[in-house]
Amino acid sequence: MRTLKIKIATLGVALATVGLLGSGCNSLTKTQKGAAIGAGAGGTVGAFIGKAAGNTALGAIIGGAVGGTAGAFIGRNMDRQAAEIKQTVPGATVTREGEGILVKFDSGILFDTDKSDLKAAAQTNLQNLAASLQKNPETNITIIGHTDNTGSDTYNQTLSVKRADAVKSYLMAGNVASSRMTVTGKGESEPIADNTTADGRAQNRRVEITIVANDKMKEQAKQQAQ
């Protein structure tokens, strides 16, 4: 019974936080929203929200939030880096979320159909992204591969991992430390569009890269908040 009550309380906080971000905080900046997420929910609930939403990238960002004034400090750092990536990596969709950054590449930009070898044209984008990651070393990076639902679950899962690994390898070649990066493949399990249409399937074939503060940046942020 006690465990059930804890789960219900946790869910209540999570839903309240989602409601706050979805409606009452429409006028807030991304930095302010990042502070609100961490202060209201904390990392554990943040990860729960992302998982419940079927969104690994969102979970990675919200799950690492510290919130409060420290979260706002981190958010300002992320604002600067997000602006830089938008300017230097034109092939990516760059979104500020909470205390982190979500960088999304449609798979067609990076790979030929059904392939996991990077296109030559994709390499400039990833070189520029690697340069930004090098200049901002106090972050952790998660690379998440996704596919549409064409083919078997097993095949799509394997392809999504291979594509995420290919991105990681190229960033490592650009002197981004392997220890900063985590790779995961989600196959067809986290669609963002309708798989029954060609346009929807194209949107679902993607690689997402999340950028969040590492322990050093979090500690600096907490000191700044004192």
Notes on the protein architecture:
With 226 residues, this protein is an alpha+beta fold. It has a single domain (2-225), classed as 60s Ribosomal Protein L30, Chain: A (2-Layer Sandwich), CATH 3.30.1330.60. The protein has ten helices and five strands; from the N terminus they run αααααββααβαβαβα. The protein has helices spanning 2-24, 30-40, 42-52, 56-63, 68-88, 107-110, 122-135, 153-173, 198-204, 215-225; strands at 93-97, 100-106, 139-146, 181-185, 206-213. Strands 1-2-5-3-4 form a five-stranded mixed beta sheet, sandwiched between helices. Strand 1 (93-97) and strand 2 (100-106) form a beta hairpin. Helix 1 packs across helix 3, helix 2 crosses helix 5 (68-88) and helix 3 (42-52) runs antiparallel to helix 4 (56-63). The longest helix is centred in the first third of the chain and has 23 residues, at 2-24. Its main location: membrane. It is found in: Cell outer membrane. This is OmpA family protein. Residues 98-215 form the OmpA-like domain.
* Count of distinct strands: 5
Strand residues, percent: 5-15%
Helices, by number, come to 10
CATH topology: 60s Ribosomal Protein L30, Chain: A
Going by helix content, strand content and strand pairing, the class is alpha+beta
